[in-house]
Amino acid sequence: MDKLLIQGGHRLSGDIVVSGAKNAALPILCAGLLTADTLQLSNVPQLQDVSTMLTLLRQMGLRVEQDGHSVVLNGGAIDKLEAPYEMVKTMRAAILVLGPLLARFGEAKVSLPGGCAIGSRPVDQHIKGLQAMGADITIDAGYIYAKAKRLKGARVVTDMITVTGTENLLMAATLADGETILENAAREPEVGDLARLLISMGARIEGVGTDRLVIQGVTSLHGAQHAVIADRIETGTFLCAVAATGGDVTLHNTRSNLLDAAMDKLREAGAILTSGDDWIRVQMAARPKAVSFRTTEYPGFPTDMQAQFMALNCIADGTSHVTETIFENRFMHVQELNRLGAAIDIEGNTSIIKGVPHFVGAPVMATDLRASASLVIAGLAAHGETLIERIYHLDRGYDRMEVKLSSVGAQIERVK
Ligand code: EPZ
Predict the structure, then answer these.
(1) pLDDT 10s digit of each residue in the chain, 416 long?
(2) How far is the CA of 326 from the centre of ligand 1 (A)?
(3) 93 alpha carbon – ligand 1 mean position (Å)
(4) Is residue 165 lining ligand 1, measured as CB closer than 6 Å?
């Protein structure tokens, strides 16, 4: 089990290249199931979750070639319409094969994802939408069994905004018979990136970027080339790291219009942010100011940035309130941050953070992907040494984070 060993207190300066977005790459890889042709993908991040998804897709018969950040997929020989429990339990996003399999093959057997550290995270909306499109779905012994001669277009209003729910139904609708309207659709940039790929494959989709997607089904989709959008959460994670340690770093291959809400809050905390078409520069000289926020769906403050920004608030001047509205248990990082000297109290879905002058390094344990990132930020800013265990959580969603941070002056290394 790898660990990260961090000597804190070093300001960060220099340049970091941001990777492609995990949460765009995962649905985009599943889109390879929708066509017998070839998809040529670039800027695919090298992450554990991407490797897991490629393994699953290979098991299903998708031909996969991966060379660095390029992936070539061909869906001409799919012969297994199933996502087994041992794959799904490690990566919930495997649920994203359900829509494509039903749309193209009329059949799917997909394990229910089960819960995870940050919440129960059911997939009832995915199922409700596919049933509305004519799928016959039963659940037995932990598996979803789905069948449909041919999906037919329907108007679907999800009970809440769901990112992968929108993505599953969007992919299913591209090959359904007739018109599908997805109301209350997720507007995250990763949904838009998937939609742009599907359109380049011949899908007919209107309303990209809005909460109402209108899809006219077609009989088949063809191959395409696509570059995965930049990872806005990796971008925001590094911005928070520099704001916490102080310094001057420029992030490349990213866009500033992907995370306006988080950047506004960083400016409120005292960071100086400047940006161009494909770069963002962050400068921080003084102690951050405490900034309160609540997470909401895009374009609001992202839940995937909550833990990272909380680490910044821990050492800020003042008291802040952080409210998590998307997941019911996404404060697993609070106890670990308190071990590093923070002063956080939890009241329901709100954390009250009383700023302390600095973190003090200590051994801590990662519990989930973004909690791990917040512990790295705390360790970088801490006085002394921090050892983070169970960093397999981090490797799921960050492409060689310690290498990127070392290149801008962090004292951080991976130890066995
Ligand atoms: C996606 O998860 C992301 N994962 C998550 O990122 C992200 O935190 C989340 O969206 C919210 O932005 C991927 O895109 C692979 P949801 P998803 O469906 O789609 C409830 C990370 O750190 N819900 O938008 O699973 C659900 O329980 C990960 O990169 C239902 O009740 O999230 C949650 O409370 C973590 N029934 C809320 O809706 C459903 O059928 C939003 O969930 C679906 C969702």
Answers:
(1) 899 999 999 999 999 999 999 999 999 999 999 999 999 999 999 999 999 999 999 999 999 999 999 999 999 999 999 999 998 988 999 999 999 999 999 999 999 987 777 887 899 999 999 999 999 999 999 999 999 999 999 999 999 999 999 999 999 999 999 999 999 999 999 999 999 999 999 999 999 999 999 999 999 999 999 999 999 999 999 999 999 999 999 999 999 999 999 999 999 999 999 999 999 999 999 999 999 999 999 999 999 999 999 999 999 999 999 999 999 889 999 999 999 999 999 999 999 999 999 999 999 999 999 999 999 999 999 999 999 999 999 999 999 999 999 999 999 999 99
(2) 8
(3) 9
(4) yes
326: Cβ below 6 Å to ligand 1?
Answer: yes
Side-chain half-sphere exposure of 171, counting CA atoms within 13 A: 31
**Ligand 1 center to residue 399 CA distance, Å?**
21
Residue of the CA atom closest to atom 7 of ligand 1: 304
Burial 336-353 (b: 16+ CB within 10 A, else e): bbebbbbebeeeebebeb
Is the Cβ atom of 301 under 6 angstroms away from ligand 1?
no
- Rounded CA-CA distance 52/70 in Å is 16
| Any ligand 1 atom below 6 A from CB of 52 | no
28, 121, 170, 182: residue to mutate for ligand 1 pocket, most atoms within 8 A of CB: 121
Q: For the packed helices 306-314 and 332-339, what is the interaxial angle rounded to 10 degrees? A: 30
Instruction: State the catalytic residue, choosing from 30, 116, 240, 314.
Output: 116
Dist. CA 404 → ligand 1 center (Å): 27
- Cβ 172 vs Cβ 198: under 8 Å: no
Contact 397 CB / ligand 1 (< 6 Å):
yes
Kindly report the pTM of this predicted structure: 0.98
- Per the annotation, the verdict on 30 as an active-site residue is no
